[in-house]
Fold this sequence. Notes:
This protein is mainly β. It has strands at about 5, 10, 20-25, 35-40, 45-50, 60, 70-75, 80-85, 90-100, 105, 110-115.
Amino acid sequence: QVQLVESGGGLVQPGGSLRLSCAVSSLTFSSYAMSWYRQAPGKERELVATIVSVGGSTNYADSVKGRFTISRDNAKNTVYLQMNRLKPEDTAVYYCKAVYVRTTYWGQGTQVTVSS
């Protein structure tokens, strides 16, 4: 059974940092493009960052460019999201997603709250 398990969320003050992890099991992790999405209350889920399966190319939403970094460790079947200089508007549930051709898997999400 494929599982994507996010961790690392929590409460942080504005300007602070968090690192999210998404541990993946029961699939060929290195073949999958991995993404982080987020969904704030009352808003649609939005793409935050993507890292491809080969080559390490990345893409970011304009709202997080220069502050967030997505990375992956294929030996550990894990994708990360390093979030720096966090803002209150980054508050959301963060989800990881794995995609290979037409196959998609989602994690259950982890809450990130940025507040003083």
